[in-house]
């Protein structure tokens, strides 16, 4: 039901309690004073509907539903601490504003999902706001958002015009697919407190060029597939944590006092790399088209796993110091510019046979 009439509820009406069995939409001119209501399916006592068509508790701390019809702008009272799940889902609202000194702390699942006209939302709250899963999914016109904390799964999935997302210090998690298909996002800063960057977090962020980490941070887990489909990503700032480090756009994971080279940005502009780690992992340099020269530090790498340098078409040189004990088959698969390493310290027959065998397989 849609009520699109002037002054349906005014100060001149008796203060009766209206009862509803289903969601009813009101135009902006329909309600001129807050009124007590009962909503059968919400099972919540002492509800009111405000002049902004917000269905709330009597103290106006929780928004349960939005019953607005063709609203373009909404102001959230500063008394609100929680916006429940799906409150504004599929609405036509373009701008969400908050009164000064907002106490908002929780936004429920899918609260603004598919608000296809939403362009601006500005969190003025000084408190930590927890944003649950799918909150802004498919908000096609949303361009900027700030003061984010602990971003849950698919929070901004499909926000194709999102250019800026400001994550506040104190945040610890970026959830699964949280920025998936944010085609306009070009750069993002990761606070020092973030511990987890989950699967597909930045999947298909086609314009994402740079990820900036605090030089010393708390990162405990980053899923490689969170950035593997970012076709423009060419820079990750250098950083270190107890579990990871990044140097020259190359990510290393620390396990049992050993460093594993797990990923190099294939679109980075690095042509020369000096490696000082224990293991070069499978597909870590997959399709790294600009790499020409790799120098392995003595007493470092012991294992080069299969397909480590898969399809590195411009790789011309790599050395093999004594520390390199195992070079697995197809380590240099489709590396057509390299015929043999220039420096092999271990000249034993068995070792040379291993290298030769690997090279023969890699160039087929």
Write up what this structure looks like.
The longest helix has 14 residues, at 349-362. The chain is elongated, with a radius of gyration of 28 Å. The protein has one helix at residues 349-362, and strands at 2-3, 18-20, 25-26, 35-39, 47-49, 54-57, 62-66, 73-76, 82-83, 95-98, 106-107, 120-121, 130-131, 144-148, 164-167, 173-174, 187-190, 196-197, 210-213, 221-222, 235-236, 239-240, 244-247, 250-255, 258-264, 272-275, 279-280, 293-296, 303-304, 317-318, 326-327. Strand 5 and strand 6 (54-57) form a beta hairpin. It has one helix and 31 strands. The protein folds into two domains: 72-246, Ribonuclease Inhibitor (Leucine-rich repeat, LRR (right-handed beta-alpha superhelix), Alpha-Beta Horseshoe), CATH 3.80.10; 248-364, Alpha-Beta Horseshoe (Leucine-rich repeat, LRR (right-handed beta-alpha superhelix)), CATH 3.80.10. It has 364 residues and is mainly beta. The termini are far apart. Helices cover 4% and strands 27% of the residues. An eight-stranded mixed beta sheet has the order 2-4-5-6-7-9-11-13, with no helix packed on it. A seven-stranded mixed beta sheet has the order 22-23-24-25-27-29-31.
Number of strands: 31
What CATH architecture of the largest domain do you see?
A: Alpha-Beta Horseshoe
Spatial order of the strands forming the largest sheet: 2-4-5-6-7-9-11-13
Looking at the structure, the CATH topology of the largest domain is Leucine-rich repeat, LRR (right-handed beta-alpha superhelix)
Helix content: under 10%
Helix and strand content put the structural class at: mainly beta
